[in-house]
Amino acid sequence: MAIPPKVYQFLVGVFASMGSILFGYDLGVIAEVIASETFTSFFNKPTSTETGIVVSFFTGGAFCGAGLAGPIGDKLGRRWTILIGCIIFLLGGALQTGAMNLHYLWAGRWLAGLGVGFLVMIIPLYQAEIAHPSIRGTITALQQFMLGIGAFVAGWVSYGTFIGLKHSTAQWRVPLGIQMIPAIFLGALIFLFPESPRWLMDHGRPEEGLETLARLHSNGNIDDPWVRAEFDQIQDSITYEHEHESKSYIELFTNRSCFRRLFIACALQASIQMTGVSAIQYYSVKIYGQIGISSSETLKYQAINNIIGLVAQAFCVLFVDKLGRRWPLITGNLINMVCFLIACILIAQFPPGSTHNAGASWGFIIMTWLYNFSFSATCGPLSWVIPAEIFDTKTRSKGVSIATMVSFAFNTLIGQITDTAMTNIGYKYYFLFIICNFTNAVFFYLFLPETKHLPLEEMNYLFTNAPYLVAFHDKAAYNAGYAEDLERRAMEIREKGMVEGVTEHVH
Questions:
Q1: pLDDT tens digits for range 131-176
Q2: Closest Cα to residue 73, out of 254, 203, 257, 259?
Q3: Which helix H or strand E contains 40, and what residues bound it?
Q4: Which of 39, 40, 207, 324 is the most exposed place for a label (fewest CB within 10 A)?
Q5: How far apart are CA 296 and CA 303, in angstroms?
């Protein structure tokens, strides 16, 4: 029995997003690594700056990887880019696991980050290009869900090794080594899955593109009316792009429609880091310690927090194509703001060391859990969904590449300054995230149009014709009807086939 096309697309998306497990696992495991006693003793009590480098070199490498993945994704295709990312990550993982001094560890961190940069940039783009418009959000949201799977596994692995391997460097080497397993499977099996049909058609291989569309949408039937209609629509769009527009990075900055999309994608990725999520992920031990919670208890609560995040990400996967992108993103930022505000008040009113208020400690824990649910159900997944779908074929790889670089640049910034900020100004550091979550919500309310259910080929029309301030306009005024056009084309092809079938039967 053949697998239903949308189920097949979903399964391909799940497999591709194994690359996101690597990023999620690292985010979850690094807090335990830098907090473990054997780590600090083996590396002769590294300073806060040296510890910050352990964290920020990973995201610095990812910044470079995301930048390289853009042109490589256009040149070699989506699958080859994924394979290259896996190979680089494995080299970095091996260096980290066997590190004999900080320089080895830093080199491994940078290489692993480079590989992750390749993967988290190209995977949502690949997912968006293979998905039916009605489930595109669900499939690209898998990026954050699998990132959550990685963080979930890391949380419990970290807790187990932190408690059970106290007298051996295995306390931090084992969790660093485990992260290589998903990369092995993804790199070994990626070529069993289809290349992006849009990439194939954009590179003069329309026959393969048609066969891939059929494989994705009709169990291999190239005469399926919907497949033929989508093929024609994509081909028309790509032909227009080749005839009228360039494919260089310069166009992203000189074409108003392209720059608008680039600005929104970059602002979105920067805003995600300014919600405070990376500060909590990288320095959870220190942040919980501010309220008087021990390191071992912190890792247990963080592991529970990872389960909550996973449930929230599953919620987004299930409902993103029903609720859309715009309002969940706005609402999520406002809830994040409230959570940080309450956490800030708790630390200010019940300073660590001067009080042993159990209620305040639990209040802080619950606020971090609620914050994580809000972020994981809205901002986190949508930061991958939106950039992957708003660009057109000619600029998608480059645009997503630049946006992902912005994400890692801000991630590196937060990773580098959080330890110092927590040491010097304590809870006042949270003021930054309270303000930024509010301004994020205002920005997206004003400037982000809804893209739910729109074919990728309609994005050019949307961002060319929609007003800059979308908050005060009716969405119907700038709807080009590409989805309806796709169904109309499919109906015409279907009716033509029926007429031809009747004619052949008569003769």
A1: 998 999 999 999 999 988 988 888 788 878 888 887 888 888 999 9
A2: 203
A3: helix 37-42
A4: 207
A5: 11
| Cα angle: 36, vertex 38, 39; to 5 degrees | 65
Reported as type and span, the H/E element at residue 254 is: helix 249-254
pLDDT, residue 245, reads: 64
The dihedral sign for the CA sequence 230, 232, 236, 238: positive
- Higher confidence at residue 499 or residue 47? 47
Cα 451 from chain centre: 17
Q: Would you say the C-alpha torsion 308, 314, 318, 324 has a positive or negative sign?
A: positive
Instruction: Please say whether the beta carbons of 55 and 30 come within 8 A.
Output: yes
Instruction: Label each residue of 263-312 as H, E or C.
Output: HHHHHHHHHHHCCCHHHHHHCHHHHHHCCCCCHHHHHHHHHHHHHHHHHH
Q: Which of 69-73, 127-131, 350-354, 361-365 has the least mean pLDDT?
A: 350-354
**Nearest by Cα to 386 from 438, 451, 475:** 451
What is the chain's alpha carbon radius of gyration, rounded to the nearest angstrom? 24
Asked if residue 437 lies in contact with residue 341, where contact means CB atoms within 8 angstroms, the answer is no
pLDDT of 501 = 43
d(CA 43, CA 310): 33
Predicted local distance difference test score (pLDDT) of residue 287: 63
pLDDT tier at 306 (50, 70, 90 boundaries)? confident
